[in-house]
Amino acid sequence: TAADRDSLPPRPPVVTIMGHVDHGKTTLLDTLRSSSVAKGEAGGITQHIGAFSVPVPNPGGEKRTITFLDTPGHAAFSAMRARGASVTDIVVLVVAADDGIMPQTKEVLELVKKDSNKVGLVVAINKVDKPGVDVSKIETALLAEGVQLETFGGDVPVVHVSGLTGQGLPTLVETISLVAEMQDLRAEQKGPIHGYVLESRVDKGLGPTATVLILRGQLTPGMGLISGLAHGKVRLLKSPAGESLKAVGPGTAALVSGWKELPKAGDEVLTGTDGEIKKALANRARKADLEATIQDAEA
Ligand code: GTP
Ligand code: NA
Ligand code: MG
């Protein structure tokens, strides 16, 4: 019930940075956390979903955590963008002031529209440091796409920023915090977890690993895991920056090792006892077999 929900502790918002290729998403996040991911990327193109949490001062003064997900803007990665949008509380749509509305800008607007009752939208018009850019032209074009910007009396906040110079970034963070505060995000911090695989890969040393976004509960080493047809037991938990963690709570993401199989990006992650996981796996495997048989029969 609503009263039960109100008694839960607050959790950090999950904020996904989205937009057309090269509109400056990674650079903007780099500046926010004083790092340089963008420079190390092959061809300057993001090819995965990056996740990290940063403490930021909220409008009340005290620090709060925001979890950011960086997504690729390249046309080839629409599945990753859909995944990013589906687990997020807030989408920051980055539009480069010198390039305007492009195909993946529109794709992001479509994704947000699908989840508009759940997902908050903030528009960041980026690269305003470039000479000759016309921000009002971009805003008018966004309005023509149906984005009800605050500039025109709507409810979608728009911030003018430069990821390169850092101009406007404090305002962007403040705006995100305000939207998150209105969402009043809360989650159970104890007990079984509920989360999603953002991405997965086999690590040379750690074996199958997954970056897992936790939305409920507390993930700790030794816990049994199930995701799709993959299972395991948490061995190592690492922050996206590489430090070992003792526990991962709601609204944050971590690299999880200890999988027997490689889980699939986008799949739900649950914890359980050995018995529960064994039973669930058997059920899922049976169901997958049955579906394969039906497909064969139909073919
Ligand atoms: P994908 O992940 O591949 O979609 O790209 P992205 O949106 O993450 O863009 P990225 O951060 O890789 O930046 C693309 C190019 O734009 C780089 O050359 C950046 O240096 C440049 N750039 C990013 N932000 C700004 C900005 O605010 N001002 C200027 N002048 N250039 C910027
Ligand atoms: Na890029
Ligand atoms: Mg990028």
UniProtKB/TrEMBL annotation:
Alphabetic keyword roster: GTP-binding, Initiation factor, Mitochondrion, Nucleotide-binding, Protein biosynthesis, Transit peptide
Kindly list the residue ranges recorded as spanning the membrane. none
Q: Kindly list the places in or outside the cell where this protein is found, as annotated in its UniProt entry.
A: Mitochondrion
Q: What's the chief localization of this chain?
A: mitochondrion
Residue limits of the Tr-type G domain? Answer: 10-186
Identify a single GO molecular function assigned to this protein. translation initiation factor activity
* Keyword Transit peptide recorded: yes
GO cellular component, alphabetical, reads:
mitochondrion
Look up the signal peptide feature and give its range: none
Q: Which family does it belong to?
A: Belongs to the TRAFAC class translation factor GTPase superfamily. Classic translation factor GTPase family. IF-2 subfamily.
Q: Mind telling me what this protein is named?
A: Translation initiation factor IF-2, mitochondrial
> What range of the full-length protein does this chain span?
47 to 345 of 583
